[in-house]
Amino acid sequence: MSNEQVKTALRSQVIEVPSWAYGNSGTRFKVFAQQGVPRDPFEKLADAAQVNAVTGVAPKVSLHIPWDKVEDYAKLAAHAADVGVSIGAINANVFQDDDYMLGSVTHPDPRVRRKATDHLLECVDIMDATGSTELKLWFSDGTNYPGQDDTRARQDRLAESLAEVYARLGEHQRFLLEYKLFEPAFYTMDLPDWGTAYAHCIALGPKAMVVVDTGHHAPGTNIEFIVAVLLRSGKLGGFDFNSRFYADDDLMVGAADPFQLFRILWEVRCSNGFDPTINGGHGVSFMLDQCHNIEPKIPGQIRSVMNVQEATAKALLVDRDAIAVAQAAGDVLGANAVLMDAFNSDVRPLLREVREEMGLHPDPMAAYAATGYAEKIRTERVGGTQAGWGA
Ligand code: LRH
Ligand code: MN
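# 6-deoxy-beta-L-fructofuranose complex -> structure
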């Protein structure tokens, strides 16, 4: 790719930020509240808009229901437009209600399954009301002890609920099925890995796609291999980007393992995954799914977006012709060197140039600091109930 082509791709990048990253979050040990945290989805969107204002590549915000429940979703979508963003994926939540202790759509009790499926259908109504085209489905469903429930029967129950939701999707809508190896269940998760999610999506049809959350695999998993296989099969709907040292740590993407993020985005490039027209025009959704438990949240999101930009720039700088020649020749070290040259490139000057060409300050962190927004929300947002996971 020429420098100009790389810049064009970087200018048109779309990174979707999660509304819940702006609220309080933590672990089972403690949620440390931070001053200035939003009290409602309108304030969350205003904070997300700050990230887009200084990076230029974060124009979409994922919502999570009921954390972002409002009376008037059209009004919320209008507010998003007013602050320069749009509503991205709608995340369903069937993991925080007492009824879901033994599962939601896989629960032995049909009354509980009905309740859970109705919530998923309500989220499609919210997609209609906000103009969102994506429903993201993650299920905490699973078991903790062998024999606790019938694994096969739970798969049948899951498939039944997904089929009902699939049938409800509009023409330009799709759902993204998210898998996770463990937590909160510790013996089986009903969607533990890409293969199980893929099997359900294949059975359903073209509107059912798999989402890869980079924190949801066993340590040592070659995530970029999964990405290559899902893209080849036309079933990679998107990413929930974050990073981890151990489990589902939900740390800033690229913070724990920038080389892994680069390898993932290189496989995305190899399978034309940056082309927004693939997947029936939906493309691949590059979403963040993170929690800023101890660091300031808006700067944390800005840094995360910059980490994705830097890894993307490096992946776009790989000399494809040179690596193809080396690979064809069986030149192991040569091929690896081509990739490492790109990874070891300092792409920060290139990104500063891209930002200036977009009419932005070359340093998003400095640009945000200069707005005084952090001080403004700290002083203005007094009283009310700070947003969080409501767990
Ligand atoms: C589950 C998950 C899922 C979201 C939640 C916020 O671990 O990754 O994507 O619903 O985090
Ligand atoms: Mn996720």
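# post-check
Residues 110-130 form the longest helix (21 residues).
The pocket of 6-deoxy-beta-L-fructofuranose (ligand 1) is lined by residues 20, 91, 138, 178, 180, 213, 240, 248, 289 (CB under 6 Å).
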